[in-house]
Amino acid sequence: MIVSILIIVVSLALFSYWFRYTCVLILSAKTSRDYAAEIANANQLRFLETRTYLLRDPKAIQLDQVYESLDRDYTLITYLLRHASARLAVDHSLENHILMIDFRLMSAWYGIVHKVSRRKARGALLEMSSIVGHLANTMGERVSTTF
């Protein structure tokens, strides 16, 4: 019984490590052209502004407003990705799903730590903005392949 619990705990720890490492790798990958700004402007997304805001003076940041803005942007960009024409599809679905899960995990983490640690809450919001930026770039890649 103890061995089974130990195996489960170690497996969960290794899976968590793999998941976080995979998210970091996906977010650190650079494409030949970044479409995020174009998609943000075309769809009135604010994730670029909120990222700049987060990187400024950390003490002056209204974390809840940033969170709400990122959540709105995430909702809109995932809607666009899901409802894009099938001919716009690019084979990034596994990456996108991993990042969508990570966004929800970071959202939950923000909910837990935002009252306790502004630094950790800010880190969660920065990662959330990177995820929205990556998804916007994916949308831009999809659109550019049709023209």
How is this structure best described in words?
The chain is mainly α and 147 residues long. The chain has one domain (2-144). It is built from six helices and no strands. The chain has helices at residues 2-28, 36-43, 47-55, 63-83, 93-113, 118-144. The longest helix has 27 residues, at 2-28.
Q: Could you list some keywords that capture this structure?
A:
147 residues; mainly alpha; 6 helices; 77% helix
List the helices and strands and how they pair.
Blueprint: H1 2-28, H2 36-43, H3 47-55, H4 63-83, H5 93-113, H6 118-144
Helix pairs in contact: 1-5, 2-6, 3-6, 4-5, 4-6, 5-6
Any idea what the shape is? globular
Q: Count of DSSP E strands?
A: 0
> What Rg is obtained from the alpha carbons, in whole angstroms?
17 Å
Series of secondary-structure elements, N-terminal to C-terminal: HHHHHH
Q: What class would the helix/strand composition place it in?
A: mainly alpha
* Major beta sheet summary: none
Share of helical residues: over 70%
Strand portion, in percent?
Answer: under 5%
Enumerate how many helices there are, as a single number.
Answer: 6
Low-pLDDT runs of 5+ residues are none
Distance between the termini: 59 Å
Q: What is the mean predicted local confidence, pLDDT?
A: 89
Structural domain count:
1
Brief overview:
The protein is mainly alpha-helical and 147 residues long. The protein has helices at residues 2-28, 36-43, 47-55, 63-83, 93-113, 118-144.
